[in-house]
Design a protein that fits this description.
The complex is a heterodimer.
Chain A lengths: L1 H6 L2 H66 L2 H11 L7 H14 L1 E8 L4 E4 L17 H13 L3 E2 L14 E8 L2 E10 L1 H8 L10 E8 L2 E4 L12 E2 L5 H7 L4 E6 L5 E9 L4 E8 H50 L15 H118 L5 E2 L2 E2 H33 L8 E4 H18 L2 E7 L5 E4 L1 H18 L5 E9 L3 E8 L6 H6 L17 H12 L2 E7 L3 E9 L14
Chain B lengths: L1 H20 L19 H13 L6 E2 L4 H14 L3 E3 L12 E3 L8 H11 L3 E7 L2 H16 L3 E8 L7 H10 L3 E5 L4 H11 L9 E3 L4 H7 L8 E4 L8 H13 L8 H20 L4 H8 L3 E4 L2 E5 L6 E2 L3 E5 L5 E6 L15 H14 L18
Parallel strand pairs in B: 1-2, 2-3, 4-5, 4-6, 6-7, 7-8
Antiparallel strand pairs in B: 8-12, 9-10, 10-11, 12-13
Classes of the chains: A alpha+beta, B alpha/beta.
Chain lengths: 685, 382
């Protein structure tokens, strides 16, 4: 687990990344440099071997060319031609100067021996091996390669070099040069030079620039086999036969090819070969060097390069390790430390060690945490403050709301008052109009009625006086106007009385109408005691109360019932209400209860009866003008209306509660003087 | 001679194609520029100058007759240009700026004469066209025949392109040589062989060894009349070697119409490859460097191993005698055991002597390398 965890880290990735990143150039560098180095050393070896091959080619060709030139020159020597001709004519040996020249020539030219052959191919003279001279074909036969060379030389009329001939006079293969002698345009014989093998070997085997394993092989094909012309540096002697695979470069050279290639040689070693064709010798030449020797510096280089590459990779690994130690581990620690911070508990120090940048990072984190902490503190403060403000705001809102509710109530109240005022206004207007009408009617009625009421008593008086007369003149049974006098007399008086009564009724009605119409325009506001007014009102109403045999109860506490008001108006109200109560209780044991109470602002008078009571529909209309429950002629329907108007005019109020069959209670509220009430002006009706 | 030369052009182009197919030289393609000398020496000279000065070529491959070669030789040498000459010739010439890939006299003439002496008889009749090659070739061969105790019974020259051969054939009929050595070049051969056969001179009794008749000429003339006669070349189309099979296949792929391949074609092909190898070795293509690098270069040619001799700038090559078959090909009846060293100046005269000989010819032809008919058609050069 921990391994997996440590692998799953930036360090591991860096390690892999850096390793891969380093592996690529290091590997590339390793292989490329080795490849370059290899190709460069091979190029150098190639160039070296090529120039060695060119040099060897030039050297061998020059050597053979020199021999050819020597042979050609010898063949053109008139003295030698003469000597040859003399030999043919039986002379046994050369003159001393010529012999000395020939022996010197053999010694100096790098030849083993020199023969002179007659035109039949017999050796007639040998500088070194005198014993073979003069021998016929049965005694001494020329080597086959020499015979072929002689044939070619005599065909082409030029100097020829033979292929290697198997051991003659030595174990080593030998080669010959031969050139024809001409005498007067005719071929008279040939000169043969036996090439000194050691000289040729020395020319071939020069190893300057061929290191320790480089060597030059010269070989030819003979009877299907490849033979080395010269011994090699590593010990293969001349005449060594080589297998087909060993001689591959030689074979290619012999075909005329010039080339290079790597082959396994006769020693079993891999060698770099350059091959050339040697036309003079008709041989193949191979200049070669062991691959091991060529690659020796490469092996050294490869080892060095490998160490460098490994060291590079190790350095990378070390670098990654250091970065892990110096960067990744502190970072992980930092991450863990930051991770470990829980809740609001911010530490002052993270306690993570590190160098340079890491230290800066930790410091930056700590600074950040410090700022967070400060910020947190500020936040708390602010939250606290905001919470308080919110609470206050909430409170204010609640208050405002309450105020609003109360304002609303007041508004509703004001609205109700307004509506009531509006109704009153309408009522007033109606009443004003009615008042005007009534006033004029009353005036028009009162004047004729006054004639009636003024004249009825006089009429009665006059009648009575008449009756005195008539009484005397008239018996009782005497008809009068269709009736007995007595009856007539009574009837007439009754009529008079009825007229008087009717006149009175008119007067009262008109008075009431006038009262109604002429509601008080002016109140005489004085300090009065309501209790006194009540008592006086009871006294006024006593006749009606007695008539209704009604029991009156007056309840008055110690309360001060003084008000500033119009005493007569209040009296009129009280009397009116008492009359109504008395009328409501005509037929049974009535009881009238009058209570006086004083509140802070009002004096309240309740007048309660146990009369017939009123239903709700009646109750709603009792303060309307001309509303009455009495039979026609008994009431004007203006009493309570006037009371209501009066109370309003006084700033008080009157209202009633009632229950049919139980009784009614009128409550009259008179305001206490909070300030001196100003007299209210009323328009005269 | 256009028939012969067309094949040389194709062989040259084949080698160039092979080099380009192998990636070119020093990172460049080899671009051939082909000019036609129209068998006219003056035209050859003008075209050579144009190739050098206007086309800035880096090597010239070509020339057929010795006359054309000798005409442009001063131009080549003056401009230090390299000429690769692909045709067998009379020798007697070296130039630091000419690479000779055809046979030198010792690679064609001398072996043929020796072989004829050994196998055909020792009485020779020499006939050739009247220009520098036959004259020089005859001089060389007469020396050799003499040295080998043979006998030259007669010698005659015909003007280039002449069909007037009756006199020569009459001579041959009269002299009855064992062998006719033929250095006639061009169309004259047709008339010559027709005349021979007309007089019943046949290969069975008097064989001819020709030095300028190869497969192409046989094909043009019809092989029938020459069947049984001989030719000496380094290369025959009928050689059965891997290198020759590849070469023939290449030629055939290039141009199916070419069904005969000749020694000069092979020489031209070899010349281009030698030049290319020299350019590779020198690392540059300027004639000066190529010439130094080409010396000593060898290759496995269709004819076998060849090597450019560093001294003479001629090619070490094989020498072969072929007998004409009825199908226009040759049976090789003799060949050297190994490549023969090129010797442009046969050794039994000194080079100075040979040069004096050529100078006399040149002067005798009024400053030409061929007899343009100023003298009798059988005029002797000396």
């Amino acid at each position: 687990m921990s391994l997996m965890k440590s692998l799953d880290s930036v360090s591991a990735e860096f390690f892999l990344l850096f390793w891969l990143a380093a592996l690529l150039p290091v590997g590339l560098g390793y292989f490329v440099s080795i490849d370059r180095f290899e190709s460069s050393i091979y190029a150098r070896a190639d160039a070296g071997l090529a120039s060695m091959a060119d040099l060897a080619f030039a050297r061998i060709e020059a050597y053979t060319q020199a021999l050819i030139d020597d042979a050609t020159l010898l063949s053109r020597s008139p003295e030698l031609v003469d000597f040859l001709l003399q030999l043919e004519h039986g002379k046994s040996g050369p003159e001393l100067p010529l012999r000395q020249f020939l022996e010197l020539f053999v010694a100096e030219s790098g030849c083993e021996d020199m023969w002179l052959l007659d035109r039949d191919g017999r050796v007639v003279y040998s500088v070194v091996h005198g014993e073979i001279s003069g021998l016929d074909e049965t005694q001494f036969s020329l080597p086959r390669p020499l015979e072929e060379a002689l044939e070619a030389a005599n065909t082409l009329l030029q100097t020829e070099i033979s292929d290697l001939a198997a051991g003659f006079a030595s174990n080593q293969d030998v080669a010959f040069l031969t050139a024809p002698f001409f005498h007067e345009g005719l071929i008279v014989g040939d000169v043969v030079l036996q090439i000194d093998n050691q000289g040729l070997f020395d020319v071939i085997n020069q190893y300057q620039g061929l290191g320790t394993t480089g060597e030059i092989m010269v070989g030819s094909e003979m009877h299907g086999k490849f033979r080395l012309t010269a011994p090699t540096r590593s010990g293969a002697g001349s005449g060594t036969d080589m297998s087909e695979s060993e001689s591959a470069p030689l074979r290619r050279a012999l075909r005329g090819e010039m080339g290079r290639g790597i082959f396994r040689d006769y020693r079993g070693m891999m060698t770099l070969n350059h091959w050339r064709y040697l036309p003079s010798l008709n041989r193949g030449m191979v200049v070669k060097m062991d691959v091991d020797e060529i690659e020796a510096p490469l092996i050294h280089f490869r080892r060095t390069a490998m160490w460098v590459a490994l060291a590079s990779l190790a350095l990378v690994a070390l670098g990654v390790f250091l970065s892990h130690r110096l960067v990744a581990t502190p970072m992980v620690n930092l991450a863990n430390a930051v991770q470990a911070i829980q809740g609001e508990n911010l530490p002052r120090k993270l306690g993570v060690g590190g160098f340079k940048e890491i230290r800066m990072l930790v410091a930056a984190f700590e600074a950040l945490i410090g700022r967070v902490r400060a910020h947190q503190h500020d936040l708390e403060q602010e939250v606290r403050q905001r919470t308080g403000e919110l609470r206050a705001t909430n409170h204010a809102l609640t208050e405002t709301n309450a105020k609003l509710v109360s304002t609303n109530d007041q508004l509703m109240e004001a609205l109700a008052k307004l509506e009531s005022a509006q109704q009153q206004l309408v009522q007033s207007e109606k009443m004003a109009a009615l008042g005007t009408l009534v006033a004029s009617i009353a005036h028009e009625i009162n004047n004729p009625n006054n004639f009636i009421s003024f004249n009825v008593p006089i009429l009665e008086d006059y009648l009575r006086r008449i009756f005195l007369v008539l009484d005397h003149h008239q018996g009782d049974d005497e008809d009068w106007v269709g009736m007995p006098y007595e009856e007539f007399r009574t009837d007439l008086l009754r009529i008079i009385e009825n007229i008087a009564y009717g006149s009175r009724r008119i007067r009262v009605t008109v008075k009431n109408l006038a009262d109604y119409a002429r509601v008080r325009t002016h109140f005489d506001m004085r300090a009065v005691d309501v209790a006194d007014i009540v008592k006086r009102s009871l006294m006024i109403a006593e006749p009606r109360l007695k008539q209704a045999s009604c029991h009156v109860e007056l309840e008055m506490g110690e309360a001060l019932t003084e008000v500033v008001s119009d005493a007569s108006a209040l009296e009129q109200v009280f009397v009116n209400v008492i009359h109504n109560a008395a009328q409501a209780m005509p037929s049974r044991e009535g009881r009238l209860t009058i209570r006086l109470e004083a509140t802070a602002s009002n004096v309240e008078v309740s007048i309660e009866d146990n009369g017939c009571g009123m239903d709700q529909g009646t109750l709603d209309r009792i303060f309307n003008p001309f509303f009455t429950t009495k039979t026609t002629g008994e009431g004007t329907g203006l009493g309570l209306f006037i009371c209501h108007r009066l109370m309003e005019g006084l700033g008080g109020s009157i209202f009633a509660v009632s229950e049919p069959g139980v009784g009614s209670t009128f409550l009259i509220r008179i305001p206490k003087p909070t300030r001196a009430p100003g007299a209210q002006e009323w328009d005269e009706l | 001679m256009a028939i012969s030369e067309k094949g040389v052009v194709e062989a040259t182009l084949l080698a160039i194609d092979q080099i380009n197919a192998g990636g070119g030289l020093l990172g460049h393609r080899v671009m051939p520029v082909i000019r036609d000398g129209a068998s006219d020496e003056r035209r050859f000279a003008a075209e050579a100058e144009s190739l050098i000065l206007e086309e800035s070529v880096c090597a010239i491959f070509g020339c057929w007759t010795s006359a054309s070669r000798k005409t442009i030789k001063p131009i080549i040498e003056k401009h230090h240009m390299l000429l690769f000459y692909p045709v067998q010739y009379e020798g007697l010439e070296t130039s630091p700026w000419i690479i000779y890939t055809g046979a030198a006299p010792n690679q064609q003439l001398l072996p043929a004469v020796k072989w004829a002496l050994d196998h055909l008889g020792n009485r020779f009749f020499l006939v050739g066209s009247d220009y520098v090659f036959p004259h020089a070739a005859h001089a060389i061969m007469k020396d050799q025949i003499l040295s080998l105790r043979g006998e030259v019974v007669g010698e005659s020259y015909l003007l280039l392109g002449s069909r007037d051969v009756d006199g020569v054939v009459q001579q041959i009929e009269d002299l009855q040589p064992d062998v006719i050595l033929n250095t006639i070049n061009g169309d004259t051969n047709v008339a010559f062989f027709q005349a021979l056969r007309a007089r019943h001179i046949t290969p069975s009794d008097t064989p001819t060894i020709s030095f300028s008749i190869a497969e192409a000429e046989l094909s043009a003339m019809g092989a029938g009349q020459l069947q049984g006669d001989f030719a000496a070349w380094s290369y025959f189309q009928s050689l059965d070697t891997p290198a020759n099979r590849a070469f023939l296949q290449g030629i055939h792929q290039r141009d199916e119409a070419i069904d005969v391949v000749t020694d000069p074609m092979e020489s031209a092909y070899v010349a281009v490859h030698l030049w290319a190898e020299a350019v590779r070795r020198a690392g540059r293509s300027e004639p000066m460097f190529v010439r130094d690098a080409v010396r000593g270069i060898s290759m496995e040619a269709p004819q076998g191993a060849v090597c450019l001799d560093p001294h003479s700038q001629h090619l070490w090559q094989m020498v072969r005698i072929g007998r004409v078959r009825d199908d226009g090909q040759f049976d090789v009846v003799w060949e050297t055991s190994k490549p023969v060293r090129p010797i442009p100046f046969p050794a039994y005269r000194s080079p100075q002597e040979w040069e004096r000989f050529l100078a006399e010819l040149f002067d005798g032809w009024n400053g030409n390398w061929a007899n343009r008919g100023f003298r009798g058609r059988e005029g002797q050069p000396r």
